[in-house]
Design brief:
The chain starts with 10 loop residues before the first strand and ends with a helix. The longest helix has 23 residues, at 208-230. It is of the alpha/beta class and 384 residues long. It is globular and about 65 Å long. A hairpin with a 4-residue loop joins strand 6 and strand 7. The strands form two sheets. Strands 1-8-5-4-2-3 form a six-stranded parallel sheet, with helices on both faces. It is 46% helix and 11% strand. It binds 5,6-dihydroxy-NADP and zinc ion. Zinc ion binds next to helix 6.
């Protein structure tokens, strides 16, 4: 196991009705900016619940943070918050609203052009604190220090990580997610699954706890995912999905282990280029990346085959092949496509993606630094 430093300061308020406690978490006399998406929280009652829990607190609202939150929109919220002297933010929505709020929080006090933070040309020195009421289990953003922001102008989608991006608290009430359409529930299952594989399907470093935790999340998703899709208001299966998503990307399973993240890096490019849902890009790329990388990931793929898919010990190549096929079938069983052409995005954009990675000096990529331009082309060719 590699050395690591682990600290996660996010307070989780999990379960039915926990929104009623949020005013205890926000300093008295704060001026709060509520940050929201396109309106789902008005329809499902979450907005009313939040506003009633915030009675007596000075509150203004910013609406319209879109899926794959866009810099240009977020800067409007930054201007509003600066003009109104906001000193606390409350994100109410899915991962996009939470990510967008993370950016707003560091951008408000930033002296230069806030896009520098995303480009890693500037480090925020202070931030406006924020909490979150999550309505979509998927990204883990509610308990991590990352955010992914898009810029329309340049068709870019880039991640930033910073300790300021940890929420002060997050409310995870599974009931808030009951109104999700099945497609978004399925997206959440796949996104969480791939967060785990990015940290688990690399090469062995004798990290028994991290491996067993990862496998437990993957098994829980395989068991609970179909259950929650079959009964969209079943509290227990949804609660398990919500907690899987949070545990999948709060830093715990990534402690002291090699990490990949190339499925996500390619996926972000596909979203920036074709506007595909984040999880949809992952469902297409992961099985092909595992196939192209099957030699360097061999030890972990065999372990994954045995422990997650219960594939009996036999010819190891066959075990790997079956485990990858099962992964693909699992994504398809949830209703996601595993080929770009099925999504109306069959155009070969390998060169564009490879050029971008080259310009950012990212190649070769992956935990073994063996994903060359050639291999990325191969993954994309298999994905069309
Ligand atoms: O905007 P509203 O009207 O709220 O509708 C949203 C949106 O259209 C809707 N929705 C959310 N909660 C709902 C609901 N509809 C009905 N009932 C509810 N309870 O769902 C749609 C998608 O929401 P979005 O927030 O975009 O989805 P998700 O949570 O999957 O977030 C995706 C974003 O997170 C980034 C992705 O790249 C993408 O930009 N990620 C962030 C990560 C992080 N911060 O660590 C890691 C992830 O890998 C990921 O990259
Ligand atoms: Zn993701």
């Amino acid at each position: 196991m590699d050395n690591f430093i682990f600290q996660n300061p996010v307070k989780i308020l999990f379960g039915r009705g926990q929104t009623s406690l949020i005013s205890n978490e926000i300093p008295k006399n704060s001026k709060v900016l509520l940050t929201c998406g396109g309106g789902s929280i008005r329809k499902n009652g979450v907005y009313d619940e939040v506003v009633s829990a915030m009675k007596g607190i000075d509150l203004i609202e910013f609406w319209g943070i879109e899926p794959n939150p866009v810099y240009e929109t977020l800067m409007k919220a930054v201007e509003m918050a600066r003009a109104e002297n906001v000193d606390y933010l409350l994100a109410v929505g899915g991962g996009s609203v939470v990510d967008g709020t993370k950016f707003i929080s560091v951008a408000i006090p930033y002296k230069g052009d806030p896009w520098e933070i995303i480009q890693k040309k500037g480090e925020p020195a202070v931030a406006i604190p924020f909490g979150c009421v999550l309505t979509l289990p998927a990204t883990g953003s509610e308990m991590n220090r990352g955010a992914v922001i898009s810029r329309r102008e340049t068709k870019e989608k880039l991640a930033f990580h910073n300790d300021f991006a940890f929420p002060k608290f997050s409310v995870l009430d599974p009931i808030h997610t009951f109104s999700l359409p099945p497609k978004q529930v399925a997206n959440g299952i796949v996104d969480t699954f791939v967060h785990v594989t990015e940290q688990y399907l690399t090469f062995p470093v004798d990290a028994a706890i991290q491996d067993r935790f990862s496998e437990s999340i993957l098994c829980a998703l395989i068991e609970e995912g179909p259950k929650t899709l079959a009964n969209l208001t079943d509290y227990n299966s949804r609660a398990n999905l919500v907690w899987s998503a949070t545990m999948g990307l709060n830093g715990l399973i990534g402690c002291g282990v090699p990490q990949d993240w190339v499925t996500h890096q390619i996926g972000h490019e596909l979203t920036a280029y074709f506007g595909l849902d984040h999880a949809q890009t992952l469902a297409v790329i992961l099985p092909n990346l595992l196939w192209v990388q099957r030699d360097s990931k061999r030890g972990k793929l065999i372990q994954y085959a045995r422990r997650v898919w219960n594939i009996p010990q036999e010819n190891e190549d066959k075990m790997i092949e079956t485990a990858i096929a099962n992964t693909k079938s699992f994504f398809e069983s949830l209703g996601l496509a595993t080929h770009l052409s099925k999504l109306g995005a069959g155009e070969d954009i390998s060169e564009i993606i490879v050029n971008r990675f080259q310009a950012r000096k990212l190649l070769p990529m992956g935990e073994s630094k063996n994903l060359t331009a050639e291999r990325i082309r191969e993954i994309l060719k298999l994905s069309i």
